[in-house]
Every structure is written in structure tokens, then in C-alpha cells.
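Narrative of activities, Objective 1.

The group set out to show that a structural description can be obtained from nothing but a protein's sequence at a throughput compatible with the screening campaign. Below is one input-output pair from the validation batch, recorded exactly as produced.
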Amino acid sequence: MATIADFVGTWYFRGNRNAPCSIRLQGQTRLIIVNEKGRTYPGHLEGDTVLVAEDPLDYGIRGVLSSDTRRIAWSNGESWER
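Output recorded for this entry:
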């Protein structure tokens, strides 16, 4: 079962090491999500594998963590990898 710690850290947009992203813990349950362009979004976990970027313009982008915790598949069709 995934935990919030499995999401926190450095990620890479589409696995590209020249396009780092990150997820940082803010408090005990809140997250700050930083995409490859440096744009930040607040977020949180829903259940044990889904992360929600709370962007009012995007109506909430969801990311599902892979079973090996090495990839996040985003609902907009993109992915982040470690």
C-alpha cells in the first residue's frame, strides 16, 4: 500500500532528467506539487494511491502511483518518473 512518503521527492516529466518536478510535504497531509515549468499546485492524497492537484483551472488533475512507486500517471495523459 502506498503512503504519502511514496509521492514526496523529485520526479522527472516523462522521465526526462532535464525536466525535474517535485512533490513536497506541507504539514502532515497537504502537498505542494511543482511541475516541470515551475508552476506550483496544492494537493493531497485520496485513498492510498491517488494524488490530486487542486488547480481551479484544471478542475483537479489526478495522479495514480504505479505499484512499484516509480511512476505517476496523470489524468491529463502525462507522466512523471523516478
